[in-house]
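This follows on from our talk about sequence and fold. Go ahead and set the record down below:
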Amino acid sequence: MQLKNPILGLCQQSTFMLSAAKVDQCPDDEGFEVAFAGRSNAGKSSALNTLTHASLARTSKTPGRTQLLNFFKLDDDRRLVDLPGYGYAKVPIPLKLHWQRHLEAYLGGRESLKGLILMMDIRHPMTDFDLLMLDWAVASGMPMHILLTKADKLTYGAAKNVLLKVQADIRKGWGDAISIQLFSAPKRMGLEDAYTVLAGWMELADKGAELAE
C-alpha cells in the first residue's frame, strides 16, 4: 500500500490563526513551530500556499508586503509561521528597523520554534540577508532547510548546477547541518522533500505514515 507523509493531512487542513506585530502578540510559546523566511520576492508566500494547498499567505507582485508575523494552525500543537520579507528598498527605514527588532526577538527567544525554512530565489541565491540567516542558524543551533525557489525559471540542468554550487558553498562556510533542495510552486516541484523535513521537525515522522486512501 502507498504511504503518505503524516504532515500532508495537517497542511491541507491548515487555517489562518493570527498576525502579530510584536513578539508579545504571538500565540502561547508551546508545541511545534516552523518559520518561513526569505528575502523580499524570494517566493516565500507562494511556497507556503503550495505546501498547504491553500491561499493562506498573501502573495503580491510588490515585494515586502508581509509586514507581520503570520501564524497558521496545523493542529492544536503545530503551527507554520510566515516571517516578514526583507531587503526591499521601498520599505521605509523605520519599518525595516521594526521588522528587524521583532524578528530577532522572535527567532532568539521562541522555545517552540523547531526549524527555519529559508527561501532563496534560485536566480539570486546567497544574498546578504541569506548569509545573515545562515550565520544565525548555525550560531544558535537552529535546524535550517533551504528551498531554492523558482527552479522552473531555469532548465533542470542549470537548476541542478546552482543547487550543487550553493550546496558546496554552504558546506564550506557553515558545515553539513543545513539541508537544501530545488523547489517550484507552479510546477509543484520538491513538495515531498519539504514535507519530510517539516514532519521530522514537528515530530510526526516517528508516528508512522498514514495509509493513503
Summary: The domain at 3-211 is CATH 3.40.50.300 (Rossmann fold). Residues 145 and 179 are 5 Å apart (CA to CA). Confidence is low (pLDDT under 50) at residues 60-65, 208-213.
